[in-house]
Amino acid sequence: MRFAEEILLLLLNEETGYFIPIPEWSLSCVLAGGVLIDLSLENRIDSDLQTLTLLDPTPTGDELLDPVLEEIVTDTRVHSPQYWVERIARRSDEISEMALDRLVKIGVLNADSGGFWSLSGKVARSRRYPTVDGKIGEEVKSRIMRALLDDEIPDPRDFAIIGLMNSCGGIRAMLEPEEYELAEDRIKLFSGMDLIGRTIGAAVLSSYRPPSAIRSVQRPSIPVIGPFGMLASRTFRSGNIPKFIAEKSKELGPIFQINAPGREMIVFASAELNRWVGHKGRLYLRTRDYLEDFQQEWGTARSIASLDGADHFRMRKAVQAGNSRAVVEDRLNEVLDLGRRAFAKWGIGKTVSGEDACQRMIGEQVAQLSVSIEPTDILDDLIKFEYRALLVHLYRMLPKFTLRTPAMKRAHARVLELYTQIHATHTPAQREGKRRDLVDDLMALHQSDPQFLPETDMGFAFIAPIIAGHYLGSAMAFAIYELLMHPDLRDRIAAEADALFADGDPVGADLSPHAIDVTRRFVMETLRRYPVVPIHLRTAMNAFEVEGMEIPAYSTVLVAFSSVHYDEQHFKDPDAFDIDRYTPPRNEHKQASGIYAPFGVGTHMCGGSRWTELQMAVNLLLIARHLELEMDPANYKLKINPLPKLSPSKKFGFRVVRYRHPIEVAATA
């Protein structure tokens, strides 16, 4: 492997899913130094303490090394190794991203959608991995730890790795204090045994990046928009929050401040800032603050939504299987049956509320798949209490006493009934012979570590996926609206559905990207135009500088990740519903990371994104297969309710004109 790859593997903390924290500039220099050592071993450059010399300009054929080599080739002047370390360090994000992508491709690392990393199961068990030449080698951490603590003489290549890591403080950060004291003499000895490694290591050690106060003497002030500026915007009044923020970021820049009654928020709105949050947000942004009061209403102190760092990573891994696309694939027959049951309730000729109908249909499916119950009318009470709690605690639009009305007390009591019902149906006897669900995984986590997931936090963990289902229900309502607005796309989706259902109900394996291509892109475009959760609220736990702006600690940061969806430089004619933007050669969503972000950015990116996309596609296919729908009223034009999430207005309705194919509902047990 290349040095950059092994340095990142050496720094990976398998308990937190991220990398051992060392100063950012130091790590940038180490990655740069690693590339330079690789170029030296490829006989492209040579170096001593004073100068770095080009030996051979021929590209290596390695995408990790050749951009750096080209930079050295095009600069005809002679510079010191330290000069090149500092210059190449500016490429550190590019180097680390490429190295991590390569490690995923060869099966060494697993990448989580939230930006967490873990060794693949095979590597974690064997502590060996495939190398760049196709051979199998011992993983770097085992080699280095044995060399430092077991009196083993390392491979010559590992001398350079130890030297680089020592130059940035990485070895000290990896080891316990007692281990470092024991190994300190060997670390110093090994750090000086490789000539090129010693030269580059010295350059890394000497490299100095001025403090931010010196680098940015005159920081621009953050532009501010107040309530009147918001209300003056027609887009804001229409409820399209992502588009409003996109318009303001074009006018004010990617960082600006919203001063709303009782709250000041610093807005991040650009693809670059989305990438920054994904790469570095965990060091500066905290999640729990704005969720604390909301969670207390449900009787819980912590949830996956409010956890950060290692605890969030651990919980995320525990629920990964229960939130995966495989759940929908494996239980596809149940999804289809519940969808048809919903259609039967809609009837023919009867107008139904688009939002309410989709909330119930999707909510019942999610409840069955995630917690294996049929919640019936409890769903309505759950939605009422959830919405009221969001408006009180997250958006501060209602006073707290509105959660204590008789109606809210009754709804809260029903929520507690739901906790009990889910718990009672997940005893070993009740679950025997059934497919494992999310609650089974949560119960196992509680039993293995009742301190990490205590009984007081389990109830909310049980119903969190049902709450998420409400958001998915809103996305489904938007999808049906667009289906009715685009008969041509509806016919193409119906054709895909008829092909899939021609010989009976499909199974999960039938839902290939090719088989549902139009439906898949229709879902993607729905999620682009109508990101149901369009923003994340965070607290700046450490002061930081980004895009030349200083963000003070304790600031409320509004990460408007979905505003990029309405940026014309990324999405042509963003107000148009255009599913062809996801096909070659356009591929607008693939221009760069952070551009298409319907599920958020950073560590709290939705872990059930692939489930969501597939469940929406399945329901669209089922609707196109069985139902001919029409808008009611026929001239309805979409209006968006922005709170507590993006959803179509209550005036959006539709009715079933006729059944394209008969609806056959399986008998209940």
Give a quick precis of the structure.
With 669 residues, the protein is an alpha+beta fold.
Task: Please describe what this structure looks like.
With 669 residues, the protein is an alpha+beta fold. The protein has 29 helices and 21 strands. The longest helix is centred in the C-terminal third of the chain and has 31 residues, at 455-485. The radius of gyration is 28 Å and the shape is globular. 42% of the residues are buried.
Features:
669 residues, alpha+beta, six-stranded mixed sheet, three-stranded antiparallel sheet, 29 helices
* Adjacency order of strands in the biggest sheet: 9-10-11-17-14-12
The best one-word shape is globular
Classification by helices and strands: alpha+beta
SS summary, helix count: 29
Q: Helical content, roughly? A: 40-55%
**Stretches where pLDDT falls below 50 for ≥5 residues?**
213-217
Taking all residues together, what is the mean pLDDT? Answer: 91
Number of strands: 21
Please outline the helices and strands:
Blueprint: H1 3-11, E1 12-13, E2 18-19, H2 24-41, E3 45-47, E4 52-54, H3 66-74, H4 81-89, H5 92-105, E5 109-111, E6 117-119, H6 121-126, E7 128-130, E8 136-138, H7 140-149, H8 156-167, H9 170-174, H10 177-191, H11 195-206, H12 212-215, E9 224-225, H13 227-231, H14 234-238, H15 241-252, E10 255-260, E11 263-268, H16 271-284, E12 285-286, H17 292-297, H18 309-318, H19 325-330, H20 332-346, E13 352-353, H21 354-371, H22 378-394, H23 406-424, H24 428-431, H25 438-448, H26 455-485, H27 487-500, H28 517-529, E14 536-540, E15 544-546, E16 549-551, E17 556-559, H29 609-626, E18 627-632, E19 640-641, E20 647-648, E21 653-659
Parallel strand pairs: 9-10, 11-17
Antiparallel strand pairs: 1-2, 3-4, 5-6, 7-8, 10-11, 12-14, 13-21, 14-17, 15-16, 18-21, 19-20
